[in-house]
Amino acid sequence: MTDTIEAKLAELGLTLPAAAAPVAAYVPVVVAGGLAHVSGQLPFIDGALVKGRLGEDVSVEDGTAAAKACGLMILAQLKAALGSLDKVERIVKLGAFINSTGDFTAQPQIANGVSELMVAVFGDAGKHARSAVGVPVLPLGAAVEVDAIVAIRP
């Protein structure tokens, strides 16, 4: 039987990447109290990490695509941890960290890449609270990193 969310991803022409292994001493997902806490995920497009800084050497379009790629990795981690994305009840909160110069102020626009993905995949259950924060550097030189809190069905 095909999962409903898997079918939605296919309808949108989206393919989940393989869930990335942690790059340090943490686990990708912790489930506690009906919530899945997803560690910060980096943007991989066609297997390559999107590196650089917004306002310097990464365009707004590429940054938005990187945020979407982080969202796809969040979904891949959830599927690996839960067995099925149909166990997702609601996207509760996303935290988007954008590697950006001090004068770059379009962090919310970049974070829309992941926010719009979640709404496209989950509909109203994809609407969430969010932070979009500019930072001077991210792990491995990534352009964007996104973490998530997700309500799950028992």
Task: Put the structure in a nutshell.
Helix 2 (60-82) crosses helix 3.
How many angstroms does the end-to-end distance come to? 20 Å
Assign the CATH class: Alpha Beta
Q: How many structural domains are formed by the residues?
A: 1
- Give a count of the beta strands, DSSP E runs of length 2 or more: 7
Q: What's the overall geometry? A: globular
Mean pLDDT: 96
Helix content: 25-40%
Tell me the CATH topology: 60s Ribosomal Protein L30, Chain: A
Encode the helix/strand succession as letters: HEEEEHEHEE
Secondary-structure-derived class: alpha+beta
Stretches with pLDDT under 50, minimum 5 residues: none
CATH architecture: 2-Layer Sandwich
